[in-house]
Amino acid sequence: MPTIPVNTGKECHLDAKLVEKALNDIDLDNTDLLIIENVGNLICPVDFKLGEHLRAVVVSVTEGDDIILKHPMIFKTAELAVINKVDIAHAVDVDAEKMRDDILSLNPDVPVILTSKHDWESLETWISFIELGIRRAQEAQRK
Fold first, then answer.
1. Angle, CA of 110, 41 and 11, to the nearest 5°
2. Residue 103: closest CA among 126, 71, 131, 130
3. pLDDT tens digit sequence for 79-125
4. Among 21, 54, 57, 22, which residue's Cα sits nearest to residue 40?
């Protein structure tokens, strides 16, 4: 997969101008899937739409089960929430179900996926969400 690193300088997030500049290095006519990974914390990125067709937020159990309520806005704007590495939740003394409940308390309609490298079904759900994004992008191009 081609990867375009973007230097945010002293900023804590990507903005649309940085993404636009990086897009110049991509053959968009021959690209079916573009994933923009916003960097930094879970506070700054919430205010910056980057042109995405779907917004997912991925958080790991290693960040602690209080991470959701510390950063509520990113979860309120998410169209999918992924809690990753649930297979090691016990090792880091985290309650992944509490994390899911906290997300749903902020955004009751958002799908929440608990993923693990040992649970292929959860990864298939994540892949289905990505495929939905591809379909939305194709529909937007037809309009």
1. 130
2. 71
3. 999 999 999 999 999 999 999 999 999 999 999 999 988 888 888 88
4. 57
Burial of 134 (0-12, 13-18, 19+ CB in 10 A): middle
The pTM for the full model equals 0.84
Q: Give the C-alpha separation, 23 to 26, whole Å.
A: 5
Q: Is 91 exposed, middle or buried (0-12, 13-18, 19+ CB in 10 A)?
A: exposed
Residues 6 or more apart in contact with residue 92 via CB below 8 angstroms: 61, 62, 64
End-to-end distance of the chain based on CA atoms, in angstroms? 28
Taking phi first (over 0 means left), then psi (-120 to 50 degrees means alpha), and beta for anything else, what does residue 18 get?
alpha
